[in-house]
Design a protein that fits this description.
Two copies of one chain form a homodimer. Chain A has 394 residues and is an alpha/beta fold. The first copy, chain A, is 42% helix and 14% strand. Chain A has helices at residues 9-13, 18-27, 49-61, 75-87, 102-114, 129-137, 154-163, 185-198, 252-265, 271-282, 285-311, 337-346, 378-392, and strands spanning 33-34, 97-100, 120-124, 141-145, 147-148, 151-152, 168-171, 201-205, 229-234, 246-249, 317-318, 326-330, 349-350, 352-353, 368-372.
Chain lengths: 394, 394
């Protein structure tokens, strides 16, 4: 009977993540100031809109919102997404747009449609770690490309793509998770040129685009290479994670493959949540809500940067993101923030060690950390930084 | 660039299904009486409850219904599912219950957690064809087990399991899709005994359990072998497909594997839809709604059986299901219902050829068809049978 319950190779390879363990730990300890969770501000989740949106969706669409629907996505939502895509420099029609079960659903299904055992995926160093686990679960090997404050380096990408066939580059050019960094326009052009030269597919994860607190929106990296890019967006940050509603733009052959597989994966994304999101977009409610989010998150980011500068020694530095939900902390070279995490949580503060965001965790630098600020109450930010200083700054 | 868009082997293997093509075809032709779509009665989808349920869920849980939540499932829904499981003879705790993105989400994630390339899955002959595509997408080979009106035959299962290692048996013992047939208690005991003897895992798909129109509920097949069975249920038939909310009971090692993979697949099922379902269960609304469904579907099933008997020649026979959403039509041996489908649709009526529900479609009998009646308006059933007679019965 033991053999009966043996897991597949891909399930055995998928280890439980440090982030999840942290989540569990800090959830049971409300006294901890957690800079760990990459979640939106709970107090701003637009729960008071739900009644209005539900009523509006039902009035407009009737029982369609409860019946089996189109695997590609609820047509009114695909239509409502077009202006968002235009804002990103992406010129699309409803036929190009796919609605997925969150941003993660889109990435998972894409990987299932693209990756064969042993394929190579290129990522940024550091990168969004849950994506690494998805790539691994489809048997892919990962190589990472070093960068600087402006994102991955075009020459390093060029060398990486010259060395071996790479299935696609996975990148988050805007307010990256975990670093918060953004690729400037010139860097985007240089990266696109390298990708074009090697004929490499781009998978752009752009779930933080709307959360810009200063400067002008930059067109998506995908906008520089239509037809050879996959663009992934989400309503998890703009509205609410629990809606599990994201969107994607894919070249038709990939979209066809994804849709065939999605019929088996979850048939379709909930038409009800899709209809609610469509109502929030067409009624202008999402835009008004975004204004509130931007103001609050910008203030929290400033408070956190100031508090870190005030309480930690000058040898601890942060970057200065233009948006998003993350601040990147760099400690002096000798300080091991991976090892110190346990002491930090005992001392009442949590973060995610930077090493967890590396394809090769063993070889990763140990002196960085991701500080997520969106769901930390404003009045707790200073105390959180004090605790960090007590544990790390001694 | 062509190579850039090449699909993975599993995506290339996943062909578009006849059912989906039919769906598309008949959706654009409202004049067709479609016995093809295995969808619930659209006119009974409980859209008028949505406002109440949303308000109740928000009042009870607040913003939690919009924030990231537990990958295993929203705890109040896991709790609310326990009485349903008890009705099925399954003695569980909230720790055993997993909430999935529809029944298909549970099956997909389970397959990802269990199947390695080349593994063998045993299925009923005929079986639910979307499951066949999921097995194929994870590289499994499928063997099917013949049966009779009482479900798969224990001796044939015994021979099948003796011949080779089988990863699991996938079966739908109650109101099976596509045949509508149900395994009686003695057959269940015999099948469980064979599975136990071979130490084979059972995956029981039981999404029609509640739709019983006569006789007493039978305990789930899983109830005969706790710890060596996976039980899959769904709210798609009881409430609404578009909620994409299902549930599963799995032995802990499998559940752990599924949850690790689900973090990458879609992180969690929508907390909002989970909270709505929980409200419908705890407030008794789901039970009252089920009473309505049962009465209407029982009447439609009777109308369809009578109409087929009235209009088709006596050489065309149907079975006599005790519940579910399907009636199984058998034509004389020479009549090819697969080939005749196109003529049928031209003649204004659609069904799904039985051959599509076979693991080996080329070797399948061609004289059977699945007639789905739940979403056909009562007043159209007779006309649908007349059209069938005109095309098939000549």
């Amino acid at each position: 009977v033991a053999g009966t319950l043996t897991l597949s190779a891909r399930a055995r390879a998928s280890a439980s993540s440090v982030i999840d363990d942290l989540f569990r730990l800090t959830r049971s300890r409300p006294d901890v100031v957690s800079f760990a969770a990459g979640a939106p501000d709970t107090s701003l989740l637009p729960v008071e809109l739900l009644g209005d949106l539900t009523r509006a969706a039902v009035d407009r669409h009737g029982r369609v919102v409860l019946q089996y629907g189109d695997t590609q996505g609820f047509p009114p939502l695909r239509e409502a997404v077009l202006p968002l895509l235009a804002r990103r420099g992406l010129d699309c029609t409803v036929d190009d747009v796919h609605i997925s079960t969150g941003g993660s659903g889109a990435l998972n299904n894409l990987c299932m449609a693209l990756l064969d055992e042993g394929d190579v995926v290129a990522v940024e160093r550091p990168t969004y770690s849950p994506a690494l686990r998805v790539f691994a679960s489809y048997g892919a090997r990962v190589v990472d490309v070093p960068g600087d404050a402006d994102g991955l380096h075009p020459d390093a990408l060029d060398a990486c793509l010259a060395r071996r066939p790479v299935r696609f580059l996975y990148a988050m050019p805007t307010f990256q998770n975990p670093t918060g960094r953004t690729m400037p326009a010139e860097r985007r052009a240089a990266v696109a040129e390298v990708l074009d030269r090697h004929g490499t597919l781009l998978v752009e994860d752009d779930v933080y685009f709307d959360l810009r607190y200063r400067g002008e929106h930059l067109p998506a990296l995908s906008a520089l290479r239509p037809g050879r890019s996959v663009y992934l967006g989400s309503f998890s940050k703009l509205l609410a994670p629990a809606l599990r509603t994201g969107y994607a733009v894919l070249p038709r052959p990939l979209l066809d493959g994804v849709l065939r597989l999605k019929q088996g994966i979850d048939m379709q994304t909930s038409s009800l949540t899709q209809a609610l999101v469509a109502e929030s977009l067409t009624g202008g409610r999402a835009d008004r809500h975004l204004g509130v989010l931007r103001a609050v998150y910008q203030r929290k980011l400033g408070l956190l940067r100031d508090a870190v500068a005030r309480h930690l020694p000058p040898s601890f530095t942060t970057n200065d993101p233009d948006g998003g939900m993350f601040l990147w902390l760099t400690a002096p070279a000798g300080v091991d923030l991976t090892v110190l995490l346990e002491a930090a949580v005992r001392g009442g503060v949590a973060y995610v060690p930077g090493s967890t965001f590396h394809a090769d965790e063993a070889a990763a630098p140990r002196n960085t950390a991701r500080l997520a600020f969106a769901d930390v109450p404003e009045e707790r930010i200073d105390e959180g930084a004090r605790r960090l200083a007590r544990v790390l700054g001694g």
